[in-house]
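Render this sequence as a predicted structure.
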Amino acid sequence: MDPVSPALREAARRALSLPAPALLAECEVSVFIGGGPGGQHRNKTESAVRLVHLPTGITVTATERRSQLRNRDAALERLRERLAPLAVRPKPRRPTRPGRGAVERRIADKKKHGQRKASRRGME
């Protein structure tokens, strides 16, 4: 059974079709101080961005750049990457049985193999 609910799948599909400003409007945007290399500019400014997509509950962050604008664009790109697998509906699997020709070939191969082994036994 598919673990993703149809409503979640539809929300992801709809969100992927939106342009960046509209997708950003569906998200809760929070900015914070991102640590790491980057010097004083990075340590004193709120340049890291966290996006929470409210319809699906997916959270992504971007902290690698010193610019809040560039981090927001990177976070939007990551959000689209996380939404893409949710939007795909897997094809239902149907049980199949081997055809008559395949069964006959398998039986013929087994007989051939058994005859080969039987011929080895007679050589002792």
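Summary. The chain has five helices and three strands. Helices lie at 6-16, 20-25, 39-44, 68-87, 100-121.
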